[in-house]
Design brief:
By secondary structure, the protein is an alpha/beta fold. 50% of the residues lie in helices and 13% in strands. A 6-stranded mixed β-sheet has the order 1-3-2-4-5-6, with helices on both faces. It starts with a strand and ends with a helix.
Length: 205
């Protein structure tokens, strides 16, 4: 569902609001509360939706990403409204910025090609890089500890966290599927499925 203030400008300001639980509706993150904040930030067209954390499909966000174009602005109250992790958020924000779209994450700042926008981008991406490094470090430490156990068996884990999958998507930019499989333990078939889902979420297919 979407709402509009009815303005007709060449470059539009889009807002996106999302809730996933009843708890969020009570703690100030309700759709109404987000919409008021987005309107105050200048949003002209607002897309809103509810979905549980177990669902990856976000029809309204997908629709927004298919409509927004160069020169437009996307406004959200917090990064976690549009991304499940900082790494995924970086990928989405980077994609939008490369298309010439300004991204305004209200509790962080506006990211565009102005000096202040570039500074915020640099800080944002630096935190994402730090998170990626921490994931790698924790993964390596976990494997080292596991190998010391008498009943340890080398093998691929059956399930992976969102952070592990996001990290694998980053690695796939510079490495082959086989190489990433060896580095992460995530099978090629799982990586292919995750890559397909990631592209769908990013609006790339």
């Amino acid at each position: 569902m979407s709402s509009s203030k009815g303005k007709n400008t060449e470059n539009k300001i889009y807002g996106y609001a999302r809730v996933s639980t009843q708890g969020q509706a009570r703690d100030g993150n309700s759709l109404d509360a987000q919409e008021k904040t987005l309107l105050a930030a200048g949003a002209e067209i607002i897309f809103k939706e509810k979905y549980t954390g177990t669902k990856t499909s976000r029809p309204q966000l997908d629709k927004l990403l298919s409509e927004i174009k160069a020169g437009d602005t996307l406004v959200v109250t917090k990064l976690d409204r549009i991304a499940r992790s900082l790494i995924q958020g970086v990928e989405l924000v980077n994609m939008l910025l490369e298309k010439g779209i300004t991204v305004n994450i209200i509790n962080m700042g506006k990211m565009d090609n102005t000096p202040s926008g570039k500074l915020i981008r640099s800080i944002f991406f630096a935190f994402a890089e730090f998170e990626r490094d921490m994931i790698v470090e924790r993964t390596q430490e976990g494997k080292a500890i596991a190998r010391r156990k008498p009943d340890y068996r080398e093998g691929r884990p059956k399930k992976f966290t969102h952070q592990q999958i996001d990290h694998a998507m980053v690695l796939l930019k510079e490495h082959s599927y086989t190489q990433v499989e060896l580095m992460t333990g995530i099978s090629v078939s799982t990586l292919v499925r995750a890559k397909r889902e990631w592209k769908k979420q990013m609006g790339l297919e």
